[in-house]
Structures are given as C-alpha cells and as structure tokens.
Design a protein that fits this description.
- The complex is a heterodimer of chains A (about 325) and B (about 240).
- In chain A, α4 packs antiparallel against α7 and α5 packs across α14.
- Chain A has a three-stranded antiparallel sheet. A two-stranded antiparallel ribbon of chain A has the order 4-5.
- The mean pLDDT of chain A is about 90.
- The termini of chain A are far apart.
- In chain A, a hairpin with a 5-residue loop joins β1 and β2.
- Chain A has two domains: about 70 residues, Ubiquitin-like (UB roll), CATH 3.10.20.90; about 250 residues, Son of Sevenless (SoS) protein, Chain S, domain 2 (Orthogonal Bundle), CATH 1.10.840.10.
- Chain A is built from 17 helices and five strands.
- With about 325 residues, chain A is mainly α.
- Chain B is of the alpha/beta class.
- Chain B has a seven-stranded mixed sheet, sandwiched between helices.
- In chain B, β2 and β3 form a beta hairpin.
- The radius of gyration of chain B is 24 Å and the shape is globular.
- The N terminus of chain B is likely disordered.
- The chains are: A mainly alpha (about 325), B alpha/beta (about 240).
- At the A-B interface, α7, α9, α12, α13 and α14 of A face α2, β3, α4 and α6 of B.
C-alpha cells in the first residue's frame, strides 16, 4: 500500500518479464490514461472510482483500454432503494461517512496538499473519504439515468431530495453536497419531464439547497451557515481541500530562508476547523427498523458509472432533446 | 377502487374549499415554475457576471486575478476572504459585479468543476508559456465546458491565456497558443501578471466578447441614442 511506483514496477518486472521500460498507468472508465510518476506512493486509494491500474511497456501505452467491468453497468437499483426509507439511508450514510472522516489523520491533509512524495507518507484514509464524495455524486446521477420509467424516476428524485434533507439534518454536509451536486449534474438537471412532475414543495426544497451550494463570493452562503453549526459536523471536504490548496499554492513556505509563519497559521486554521468538526462524537438517533443491516450493506457497496459522457448519453436516451 | 373512493370524498366537501384549493394550486404553481426557469435556464438575470478561471497548478491564475483586482503582484494572499475577487463594472449601462472564481484545488472533484462551469458566464483558460503540459491540461477542461454549455457555447466569451510571458525559458510559442485558440474558436492573449502586461486588456477583451450584453470595465452613465437603441434590441434578443 505504501510502495512507491518505482518499487511496484521493479517487483513486476521480475515476475512478468515484460522488459525494462515499464510504466504504471491508471486507466479511467472514460479511456483516459494517466501515467503515474515514479516517486508517487499510496496510489491504490488515490485513483478514480472505476479506474484500474495497468503495467505496460512504454511502447504499448496507446493500446490500453478500459476493461468491460469498468464501463458496463446497465441496471439501476431502484427497486432496492425503494425499499429503504430516506431517513434510514441518511442515517447509515452518515455513520459510514463519520467513520471515514474520523479515520482521517490531520497530517494526511498536509501530505496531500504539499505533495505526498515530499514526505514519503500515504494519505489512504483521506483518499477514501474524498473519493466517497465523488462516488455519492455519481451514484445519484447513475441511479437517475438508469431508471427508465418516468414516474419511478420522479419518485426517485423525491427520495434523493429527502435524502439530502436528512443528511443536512444530520449535519453530514459532505454527503448533502454530493447529493445536491449529483442532482444538479447536467445529466439529471436536463430531465425536464421529470422535474416538471416533481411536487412544488420538493422543487422549493431543492431550490433552497442549490442556494446553499452557490459558489459565488467563495461559497459565502455555505460558510455562513456552517459557522452557526455546532459539532459533530461532517464538513464539505472539497471546499476545505480547496482552501488548503489555495493557501499552499498562493504563499511561499520560506522567505529568504525564514519560515512563512502567516502561511503556517492559515494551514493550521483549516486543520483546526477539521478538529472542531469532530470534537464531539456522532450521536444520531437510530431509525430502528428491520432492514437496517441491508441498508447499511447497500450504502457501503455502491456501484456507479463515473463516465460523464456516458451518463449524459443515457440521459438523452431517457428524455430526448425537445425541438 | 381506492382512487374513486377518494374522489367521492373530496366532492362531498364544501365546494368553497375546493375552489380555494384550486386557486392555491395555480397560484403556487406559476411562481415556482417561473423561478425554476430563472434558476436553471437563465442565471443571467442576476446582477452578477461570473468569470471562471481555469488552469493547472502553478501557471499563475491567482496572481493574474489578483493583479487585475488589486493592481498588485503579491506572493501571499488569504483564500477565504469573500470579497477578494469582486470588481464593479458596467453592464447594459448599469452597475454590475464582476465575480471571478478561481478554481484552484478543485481538479480532484469533477462535480466542483462542473458547478463552476454551469454557473459561469465567461471563462479564462490559463497556461504558462513555460510549460507545454499546462496547455495540454486545458484540453479536457475546454471539452467539459463545451459539453455543459452545449449549443450555447458560441455566445460564451472564452479566452485562452499564456501567462508568464516575461519569462525566458519558453516552451509554448505564441503562434502555437493562437492556433489552439483558433481551433477552439476563442480569443488568445499572452500576459504577465508579474510585469502587469496585458492583464487589464485580458479582462477588457473578455467583456467585449460578451455579445448578449454590453459590458465594460469603465462605469459609463451616458450614451448616444443609437447606442441605446442597439442595446434595447440586444436586450430583447437575450431573452431568447
């Protein structure tokens, strides 16, 4: 897990006998190829959701294509989701997210932002937590575009909006944003027949959610509303990461050989936010139903399509563009 | 069976109630529909004009933005101050806020990028003339913009910008950048945030590319009648 790319390649070279000039390449479900740098490490957790790792001789790089299991997912799980209540799902999602969040070591954020290879440390816990955000977002879109029946799609949309509301109640903002962003993904937001049939109460709810997500003035609405919250909070991680990246890239670590203390202070401030968010344990009231184990199981094993182009295509198939 | 039963029951209620409920319904529906249209299709209604800046790490996006907004070149800044990236400009003769969204740090989250794209009115794609890689990395971003904006893309101002043109170890030639800009059907400019070369021009040109409204960095108050008429026509067109 903590092996460097060059170490992996060295091991593989002996076993496979593919020659000397080997590359380790991540192949995304879109077919995009990313050659991993030799000094990178802890790569197994940092690759994309449906990505696969390939070892290949340099000259055969162009021949790498995604495996069928990376791209094919033809059936949604509407009938399964239908069985669970949105409150129950939100409960289990929050438990799982909290687990992932509390596993993240504060230093991992620093390794991630400053560059893992500089420290020779891995950021697996953080990777998994960050990946979860993308996963949930794609899950929402995937389920929406794989539900071909219009009225079922409307009820699924309702359910997802309710799910978002429950996540917000649980102060699981990471998950809340993932769901709302999933629903405002172009593949879902363009389904106007579905949105038209949505009761106005839900439309209003979603419009309010979108306001919370508004990125203008550097996510001012979100920052203000979070400032009023008490822990435990699962924060909107992409924004935290963005803040840290900004601080890091915009400021030098050293000035004339002296440590830039202002920058360190700013980084520490973000870490303090993380610490504050989890300063009290998560204590949610269990919804107490029989399907608890099933829900938890489902929530932890989500399957998604992570290829935006494919999602948009599926969406066009459901509701062709009106002329 | 159940459905008809319910229908009968509601009929048995006083008619007055029913009428009331109907009024509520129609009243309720109309504004929400309106709102959803405004939120989804036409965010331009608001008084903000959003410019989104994309570019790989280290190409100087932030320096470029700060040079424009503050007129300074600094080595350090604080990210979470909310009004860092705002500038008052003129739009259709009215005062409007130019909002600049810097996308640094969101490459890991496609959803964040898509959010900025769908909320953006204009785009600046920055690469460094010292790094061919940074130009390559803009390609998927341009494709993403094209996909999200769909057929609207023709009316959207996009600038391809080669920053750091004060540096000597150049990897990307001016003509190369221009060629790609031509392929993408967008404008091209080389800038230097450090020496303040072409920075204001960049934003000026970007606003001029906006054909749906008249935008300018200067706050104008008076205009000739012909200009007014032109704008009126344009204003009408923008509803489409």
């Amino acid at each position: 897990m903590d092996a460097k790319v060059e170490q992996i390649l060295l091991q593989v070279k002996d076993k496979l006998g593919l020659g000397d000039d080997l590359l380790l390449c991540e192949v995304k479900s879109t077919g995009e190829r990313i050659v991993l740098k030799e000094n990178d490490l802890g790569i197994t957790t940092s690759i994309g959701i449906n990505s696969q790792l390939f070892v290949t001789p340099k000259e055969h790089l162009d021949a790498l294509t995604p495996l069928p299991e990376q791209t094919c997912l033809s059936d949604g799980t509407f009938s399964t989701i239908e069985m669970f209540s949105s409150r129950e799902m939100a409960y289990h999602m929050s438990l799982y997210d909290w687990e992932l969040f509390t596993c993240v070591q504060e230093y991992e954020l620093i390794y991630q932002v400053f560059g893992r290879y500089k420290f020779g440390k891995i950021t697996c816990n953080l990777d998994l937590f960050l990946r979860r955000f993308n996963e949930i977002q794609f899950w929402i879109v995937t389920e929406m575009v794989l539900t071909s029946n219009l009225s079922k799609r409307v009820s699924l949309l309702r359910k997802f909006i309710k799910l978002a509301a429950h996540c917000k109640e649980n102060r699981n903002l990471n998950c809340f944003f993932a769901i709302v962003m999933g629903l405002s993904n172009i593949a879902v937001s363009r389904l106007s027949l579905t949105w038209e049939k949505l009761p106005s109460k839900f439309k209003k709810m979603f419009a309010d959610f979108e306001t919370l997500m508004d990125p203008s003035r550097n996510h001012r609405v979100y920052r203000l509303s979070v400032a009023k919250m008490a822990p435990p909070i699962i924060p909107f991680m992409p924004l935290l990461m963005k803040d840290m990246t900004f601080t890091h890239e915009g400021n030098k670590t050293y000035f004339d050989g002296l440590v830039n203390f202002e920058k360190m202070h700013m980084i520490a401030q973000t870490l303090k936010t993380v610490r504050f968010c989890r300063s009290t344990p998560l204590d949610l009231e269990a919804p107490g139903t029989l399907k608890s184990a099933d829900t938890s199981d489902y929530i932890r094993n989500i399957k998604v399509i992570d290829n935006q182009r494919l999602l948009t295509q599926l969406s066009h198939k459901l509701e062709p563009r009106r002329t | 069976m159940a459905a008809s039963g319910r229908a009968v029951r509601s009929n048995s209620k006083t008619t007055g109630m029913n009428v009331d409920a109907d009024i509520w319904k129609t009243k309720d529906k109309a504004p929400t529909k309106d709102r959803s249209v405004r939120l989804r299709v036409n965010p331009e209604q608001s008084n903000d004009y959003r410019v989104v800046v994309f570019g790989a790490g280290g190409v100087g996006k932030s320096s470029l933005v700060l040079r424009f907004v503050r007129g300074t070149f600094r080595d350090s800044y604080i990210p979470t101050i909310e009004d860092t990236y705002r500038q008052v400009i003129s739009c259709n003769k009215q005062v409007c806020t130019l909002q600049i969204t810097d996308t640094t740090g969101s490459h890991q989250f496609p959803a964040m990028q898509r959010l900025s794209i769908s909320k953006g009115h204009a785009f600046i794609l920055v690469y460094s003339i010292t790094s061919r890689q940074s130009l390559e990395e803009l390609k998927p971003i341009f494709e993403e913009i094209a996909e999200i904006k769909g057929t609207d893309i023709e009316g959207i101002p996009i600038m391809l910008v080669g920053n750091k043109c004060d540096e000597v170890n150049r990897e990307v030639g001016t003509s190369e950048g221009a060629a790609i800009a031509k392929r993408w059907n967008c404008a091209h400019l080389e800038t230097s945030a450090k020496t303040n070369y072409n920075v204001k021009e960049l934003f000026q040109e970007l606003l001029q590319l906006e054909k749906r409204r008249t935008m300018s960095l200067q706050l104008e108050t008076k205009k000739t009648r012909s200009q007014k008429r032109k704008e009126k026509l344009r204003g009408k067109c923008s509803i489409m």
